[in-house]
Amino acid sequence: MARARSEERRAEILRAALEVIAERGYRGASLGAVAERVGLTQQGLLHYFPTKEALLVAVLEERDQWDTGGSGRSAGAWRLDLLDSLVEYNAMRPGIVQTFSALLGESVTEEHPARQFFTHRYAQVREGMAAALRAEYGEALPGGLTPEQAAPLLVAVMDGLQYQWLLDPGSVDMPAAFRDFLTLLGRPPAP
User: Fold this and answer.
1) Separation in Å, CA 167 to CA 99, 101, 139, 157, 177
2) According to the UniProt record, which residues make up the DNA-binding region (predicted)?
3) Do residues 33 and 24 touch, judged by C-beta distance below 8 A?
């Protein structure tokens, strides 16, 4: 019972941290603001997450769990039709996409606490995208690229569309643009 309550509290803290980071950015977010939002003292929050960096990484890991449906999807388990669904899903949750995008942008600085998380995550994502492309096209895509060559391009399109959509959602239909990209890859449009 106590363990379940502890897990619920942890999940509540992660949701609050995501909200605070979305509102203020990582650098502007404080442990005190997160603690206040969930009715804890800062010392009480430190019982669950010993540092701001640990909380940030937990938020990012939780966001990835949401994206994979909590499945702990392995690097090779992506499918192109599921990527299309993920882009659709992301279009329904701009706050989470905005927070992720802001943290990704911040993480390119040398000492950012999420840099290692994103570096590792992108290595896994590229590996997973290469496996998805290989499952769909074999060893070469219609244009001649290998799945490993095309994987970073696929990831760049997904992330780049998110930035464009966040900046001008009225002009960029992220799901439709992603489906257009899949058509460029030689995949017939979904019915």
Assistant:
1) 13, 11, 36, 15, 15
2) 30-49
3) yes
